[in-house]
Amino acid sequence: MSTISAAAAAKTIQINQLHKSYTGQAGTEPHYIIKGVDLVVKGGEFFVLLGPSGCGKSTLLNIIAGFVAKTEGKLTIDGEEISRPGRDRAMVFQQADASLFPWLTVRENVEFGLKMKKTPKAERREVSDHYIGLVGLKGHENKFPRELSGGMKQRVQLARVLALNSSILLMDEPFGALDAMTRRTMQKELIRIWQQTGKTVIFVTHDLQEALLLGQRIGVMSVGPASRISDIHEVPLSYPRELSDPRFHELYETIQRHFDE
Ligand SMILES: Nc1ncnc2c1ncn2[C@@H]1O[C@H](COP(=O)(O)OP(=O)(O)OP(=O)(O)O)[C@@H](O)[C@H]1O
């Protein structure tokens, strides 16, 4: 069966009393970045992690990815405790440049992970055609990253991650470096791709508008240190969401007020 048709089932992430601290010099108290994070993200959900700069969003995402070790607490995926990276999770970073190989074409970048997995050439081609099309890059297969705009590079990164067929997408401010118009287009496309692929998504942002455009639920992290998820807001709006929707504006005001208190 091809990688496209064998779509991985969405997975549930459960976090209980997660702490992350760094120790300083001998004899000093540990410095808690996050302390007491509790969270359940259901399989197939689009969950947004929102919080001010430096509160520990990336730290939490990196712990879920298995890139950073937790200090205490429990982290399970479909009931199985995890502590290292796995094929069930894939990360999309803010800087697409840093994650693409400049000497490989769009197609070669998208196929890279599959090549590492020794996927046969014909299947690699089928998968890369599918995801290059899905992210709107058809016709650009033979270009190199230097020939692409920032938005296009981010699409390549997304296609490469999608081609790996992980059931969980971890996204760390992936559109933070894009101009406003490209960012809006990418947000819409991401929702379309999420709806088509049924993946579990955890999307980190410090932008409330972006959080409300994307998330089914928004977890707000408190100001660090020793940050935790202090509130979870359900977003009862269907997709695609429009900034001009008065209900969007109302929700924005409600959550913003909460920040100001
Ligand atoms: N290896 C480390 N050792 C010590 N402190 C660290 C380490 N990594 C991160 N920190 C600290 O943890 C805190 C949270 O960082 P993190 O990058 O998770 O925040 P963030 O909410 O993602 O911020 P931003 O939105 O600015 O990216 C920061 O104060 C940072 O300095």
TrEMBL record:
<dbReference type="InterPro" id="IPR050166">
    <property type="entry name" value="ABC_transporter_ATP-bind"/>
</dbReference>
<keyword id="KW-0813">Transport</keyword>
<dbReference type="InterPro" id="IPR027417">
    <property type="entry name" value="P-loop_NTPase"/>
</dbReference>
<dbReference type="Pfam" id="PF00005">
    <property type="entry name" value="ABC_tran"/>
</dbReference>
<dbReference type="InterPro" id="IPR003439">
    <property type="entry name" value="ABC_transporter-like_ATP-bd"/>
</dbReference>
<dbReference type="InterPro" id="IPR017871">
    <property type="entry name" value="ABC_transporter-like_CS"/>
</dbReference>
<feature type="domain" description="ABC transporter">
    <location>
        <begin position="13"/>
        <end position="248"/>
    </location>
</feature>
<dbReference type="GO" id="GO:0016887">
    <property type="term" value="F:ATP hydrolysis activity"/>
</dbReference>
<dbReference type="InterPro" id="IPR003593">
    <property type="entry name" value="AAA+_ATPase"/>
</dbReference>
<keyword id="KW-0067">ATP-binding</keyword>
<keyword id="KW-0547">Nucleotide-binding</keyword>
<protein>
    <submittedName>
        <fullName>ABC transporter</fullName>
    </submittedName>
</protein>
<dbReference type="GO" id="GO:0005524">
    <property type="term" value="F:ATP binding"/>
</dbReference>
